[in-house]
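To: structure desk
From: M.T.
Subject: fold request, one chain
Message: Could you run this one when you get a chance? Sequence is below, nothing fancy, just the single chain.
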Amino acid sequence: MSEGQDDRRAKLERLRSEGVDPFPHQFDGVVPIETIHAAHDGLEAGEETDTAYRIAGRLAARRGHGGAAFLDVVDRSGRIQLHARKDALGEESFERLVSLDLGDLIGVDGTAFKSRRGELTLAVTSWELLAKSLRAPPEKFHGLEDVEIRYRQRELDLISNEEVRQLFILRSKAISAIRRWFDDRGFLEVETPVLQPLYGGALSRPFVTHHNALDRDFYLRIATELYLKRLIVGGLEKVYEIGKDFRNEGISHKHSPEFTMLEWYEAYADYNDVARELEEMVSYVAREAGYEGELDFTPPWRRLKLREAILEKTGVDVIAHRDRESLVAEAKTKGIELDPAESWPQLVDELLSKYVEPTLVQPTFVMDYPVELSPFAKAHRSEPGLVERWEAFCTGIEFSNAFTELNDPDEQRARFEAQTALTQEGDEETQPYDEDFVRALEHGMPPTGGVGVGIDRLVMILSGRSSIREVILFPAMRGGS
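Reply: Done. C-alpha cells follow.
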C-alpha cells in the first residue's frame, strides 16, 4: 500500500470515528451540472441569483485560503466551481470539506452566481460525502495517457479524460438513435441466441465453449444473420438486432474478437432498398449524435462496382481471372505479390482491402461482388457470376455489408457445398453447412434485403477515432487482467 493510500485510509477511519458515514446509501434530487450551465452561463461577472441546485460528482480541484475555498466538481455532463465559506457552513463542516482528497465523491447544495472573474459558481450552503476515494486519481486529473492502463482500467480513463467520457456518451446517443430510427419505421427489435449449435452468417473462425448441462459444445455466434432470416420466414417481415458477436480472428485497429453489430432484414426489399435505408439511417444518427466533422453523410452516397474499383487501383481484372493460379499470376504482372496458398475469394478480398478500401474516405458503396465471396447473397439479376451485394466504406474502413438475400433453398444448399470445398482447400474462414437453415428456406422466404453494420466502426467514424479499442469500453487485451 502506498503512502498516499495510507493517508486516505487514515482519513476514512477518522471520518468514521467522528460519526460520518463515508459511504451513505443515497443522495436524492441531483441535477446534471450542464443544467446549471444552460440556465446561468449568461450571467454577468459578479451577478448573483437565489436559484438553488443540488449536484453530485467527483472532487477534481481545490484552492483557497483562510475562511474561504474554491473547489471544482465533475459529473458526467460537465464541471463547475464551488465556493465554500466558513461563515456559511460552520467551522467543522468547512474544515472537513477542505480536507477532502481529490477523487472523493460529494453531494452539494448551493446557489448559482458568477464570480468576479466570470466563472459560473455554486455558493455552497451544505454538502455531504458520498464516497471516500481510497486511491488517488490519475495524474491529479491532468489526463491519463498510458494506453495499457486506459484500456484495462477504463474507469480511470473516464475519470481523468473528459474527451473519453464524451466519446462514450456519443456512442450511447448513436445506439439510441439507431433504435429510434428502426422503431419509427415499424421494425421489431428481437434477440437471437449467442450460444449456437452451429455458427454461421459470416466468414470467420468461431470461439468454442462447452455446455455442461447439455454435454455438448456450442459456438459463440459470429453473426445473427441466419436466425434473423428464419424470423423473416416466420412472417415477422421487418426485424433488427443490436448485439455482441464474437470472431476468433486477429486483433487490429479495426478488428476486435468481441464487437457490437446491428443487423436488419426487411421482406419484399432488395439491396438497393436497404442501401437507401442505410444512407438515411446513418445521416440521422450522425445528426442525433452531434457529429460536426468533414464527412458528408447526406444521401445519396457514391456507388462503385467492385470489379471496376479493383481494376482502377491495381490494374487487375479479378473477374477475368476467376481461379487462384490465374489471379496470382495476373497480379504478379502488375507488381503485386499474392499468397498462392490462399483461396480465390481471400485473394480478391485482399486486393479490395489493401488497394481500394484505404482510398474511400467519404461514404461509399462498393457494389456487386463475385458469388464466391458471398454465400448468402442472391445472384445478380443481370451480371452472371456476381451477386447483389454491397459493402459501405468511410474513412478508409468497411463498416456495413448487405445483400439481396438468397432465398432459393436449392441454391443455398449448393453454396454451402461450395464453401465446404473451400474448407478442404485450407480456408478456415468459411461457412459450415447448416441444414436447419436450408430447411427453413424450404418453407419459403420472401424477397428480402439484409444489412449488417459494425457499431464500433460506425462510432469510430463519427468520433474520428482510428482504433477500435478506443470506442470499446473494455477491449480484449493480451496478458494481465
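Reply (cont.): The domain at 3-136 is CATH 2.40.50.140 (OB fold (Dihydrolipoamide Acetyltransferase, E2P)). Let me know if you need anything else for the meeting.
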